[in-house]
Amino acid sequence: ADAEFMAVHVRNSTEFAAAASALRDTGGTIRLRRGWYGGELVVGPRSARPLRIVGGRGVRVESLLLDRTRNVSVTRLRISPIRQDAWLRISDSRRIEVRNVLVTAERTRYRATVQVVESSHVVIRRSEFRRCGNRSPLFSNCLHVKHGTKHMLIANNWFHDCRGCDFVHGRFGYNLTLSANRFERALPCRGMNRHRCGHQDLVSFWSGNRLLVERNTFGVYRLGAAQLYLIGAVDRVSIVNNVFRGTDRKVPGYQARVAIIVGSKGSKRVPRRVRIVNNTILTGARRIDGYAGSIRMSGVYWRLQERRRPLLANNVIGLVEVPHHVCSVARRAVSNVVLRGVRCLGRNRLGRVHLDRHGRPTAASNLLIDRASRSLGTRRDIDGHRRDSRPDIGAYEYRGAKPRD
Does this model's pTM top 0.90? Predict the structure, then answer.
């Protein structure tokens, strides 16, 4: 109520700067009137009292910098180029929330990016990222996380239709959660150099400690490495209750090749203590280099202690042609069902699982229902439902009548 009482309406960058200065100690609300805001809007060091930056229909901001600030929320803005690349930069700041923001560079030759650097307790939720740099000659990342960022939540966002870019990319410090997001269609750009247009991983992280990837839906990419690519020193990772789809009706005739890659082929440092549990992985097709499998783990794991190798449990896995880079390097491979190819040894199976078109189990899913390892699995499924005492394999817990044995 206090923040709403201290409300200032602005119509250009000069008035924004004056409002940010006036509310530096008291907190309050800056409301942007309809219009285009070129140049850079800046919020600098300020008191602990909350500041809200609120836009609305017709508000278009080219650049917003939150620099060494705290307790700021940003909502209902469109971050989009006017005469140059568009940015929302969060730098050396803490307790920042970005909500209901559209980030797009569509119909321009520029980029649009949210960049988080050396910041903590940052939340990005319920926002849309699309066409973040389709026509830019430079590398584009819709959301770019840089060194030192910690305690970050990326939740309930929609990333889609970006050509020649990664949706989420970077390095973080400690504790990043990627939850309940949709990633759809990272595709090759056109008419530019091969290096620029050949990198479309949906999500890629190069370093960080304590990463949770939960309840997300991953769609197709074309020329990148994988839907989820973990490289180098990304440690204590949990990949749980996600769905990886290999096809998309809007990209007919194409099938994504690899869902998860853990460890780069040319790197001696690999992610440690990775859990891949209760996922429904339908992605799986032969890559250009000949590899055929939904998951690929680095051979470097052979040289690590078992406790530092990945755990693979309770997953539906679309394709395993050669188990060397999947089952053999894992610390344990338990209660997984492979749809095509060969199964892992031990308590793993191969066969049809009879999912519906959304990837959910049906009454005919005998290989999944009541077949998961309870001790290694998750307490809730992708929808947040509590799992049964005899849980199911995959991201979804079956909610219908149980089939008879």
Answer: yes
